Amino acid sequence: MENSQITIRLTPDEALVLSDWLERVQMTDLDRMVDDPAVWAPIHRIAGTLDKALPEIFAADYGARLDAARRRLREDMGDLGVPASGDAGRDAGPCREVPDHEIS
User: Fold this and answer.
1) pLDDT tens digits for 50-101?
2) Of 20, 71, 85, 100, which one is least surrounded by beta carbons within 10 A?
3) What angle do CA 87, 21, 47 make, to 5 degrees?
4) Distances in Å between the alpha carbon of 75 and those of 11, 19, 70, 79?
5) 9 sits in which H/E element
6) pTM for the complete prediction?
7) Distance in angstroms (rounded) separating the CA atoms of residues 68 and 30
8) Interatomic CA distance for residues 57 and 77, integer angstroms
9) Which residue, among 9, 17, 10, 97, has the nearest Cα to 56 in the 3D structure?
């Protein structure tokens, strides 16, 4: 596995929302969250790749685009990811695969 790479596929909405989240996370005090400096390498690689792949992060209506992407993802997910009372450890089932946006 020395020369192989992992490919992550995201929809454009997933990529936009993840990019925004990573940007906000990188601007906070991550020393409390990141317990191993090696984690920074993949965080920076993913964030940088998303920045290059998403011209909409520089659009004048970025906020509206981000809000719309978040809304669509929430609608698609339904209650997946929202813990039900007393049900925090339940198995949500398999995630669907949507190969619309690729990060390499």
Assistant:
1) 999 999 999 999 999 999 999 999 999 887 766 555 444 434 333 444 444 5
2) 85
3) 125
4) 14, 19, 9, 9
5) strand 8-10
6) 0.70
7) 28
8) 23
9) 17
